[in-house]
Design a protein that fits this description.
single chain, alpha/beta, Rossmann fold
Length: about 325
């Protein structure tokens, strides 16, 4: 863009330095947290956002009359009112592909940690309790049936890893996928009835809100394990806390919550829950790749009028 005025981009929330620096090198970046007057708002052509900002709705877009594109730092984009963007002719992009393997790795680590109670065992050692007696024996992954709720790119990456553990695998999605050998179940409830581990990797949003409810948890059973690495909204958090407290299910491993970063005290108090602070894609390498794809989407849009990874709802806006 040498010799040309750099497009004005609004950063809605802070990004890591390894993303912020190349973003500011490529564009004229305004930081929303530093304030934005009407004159600056009128020049903004792009908005770079992430889940730290929270819900990005029509009220924000209305302040930006020249807005052309919203680039999301992450594959999930339920934090953006995509319908409002599409109605204004605003392209929305996300960062699929670059984080699939990292999230799948984390999912397997969380699954093993939850079933074998690895954090609890470490706490036992650090508290000096080993000298008083061995840590209690844990449940096992052996012989279990694992259901994957949402067999998208991340779900498939999780399934490939699970194959190496010799467990039975099944899945639920809106439709049966051709070329997939795993059994398909038509509903989340039917899948939960057939398995004793449920791994949740569906997108967030209104269509999946509360999908894992009290009935699904009951179907999973007293030896059941829930793993959620998608969005907190997919699981009825109140029903989950009750299921853990009452022994309706055995345990849960969670990387996501309904009102992040708030985690209910009743959930934190459960010894049969392994809780992580939404770190599924949280490695330096993967977050760097996500930031670069976000920037590449902006660069491609301004250079060609076409984004690299548009979300389905705004793909028709490609020029």
């Amino acid at each position: 863009m040498r010799g040309m005025t750099k497009p004005a981009v609004l950063a809605a929330a802070p990004f890591p330095p390894f993303t912020m620096q190349p973003l500011e090198a490529a564009f004229a970046v305004h930081r929303l947290w530093d304030g934005l007057d009407d004159a600056a708002a009128g020049s903004i052509r792009a908005l770079a956002t992430n889940t730290l900002f929270g819900r990005l709705g029509a009220e924000v877009m209305n302040r930006l009359p020249a807005l052309e594109i919203i680039a999301n730092f992450g594959v999930g984009y339920d934090n953006i009112d995509v319908a409002a963007a599409a109605s204004r002719g605003v392209m929305v992009t996300n960062t699929p592909g670059v984080l699939d393997e990292e999230v799948a790795d984390l999912t397997l680590g969380l699954l093993l940690s939850t079933i074998r109670r690895l954090p609890q065992a470490e706490r036992h050692l650090r508290a000096g309790l080993w000298e008083q007696g061995a840590f209690p024996l844990s449940p096992t992954l052996r012989g279990r049936r694992v259901g994957i709720l949402g067999l998208g790119a991340i779900g498939k990456a999780v399934a490939r890893r699970l194959e190496g553990f010799g467990v039975a695998i099944a899945y639920h999605g809106r439709t049966r996928q051709e070329g997939v050998a795993y059994p398909w179940y038509p509903t989340a409830l039917a899948l939960a009835e057939a398995v004793d581990v449920l791994v949740v990797v569906v997108p967030g949003g209104a269509a999946t809100a509360g999908l894992v409810d009290a009935a699904v948890l009951r179907a999973l059973g007293p030896q059941g394990v829930l793993i959620n690495v998608s969005r907190g909204s997919v699981v009825d958090e109140v029903a989950l806390i009750a299921a853990l407290q009452q022994g309706t299910i055995l345990a849960a491993g969670l990387d996501v919550f309904t009102r992040e970063p708030h985690v209910p005290a009743d959930l934190v108090a459960q010894d049969n829950a392994v809780l992580l602070p939404h770190v599924g894609s949280g490695s330096v390498a993967t977050r760097t790749a996500m930031g670069q794809l976000m920037i590449d989407n902006l660069s491609a849009w301004f250079a060609t009028g076409r984004a690299l990874t548009p979300v389905a709802e705004t793909r028709h806006l490609q020029r």
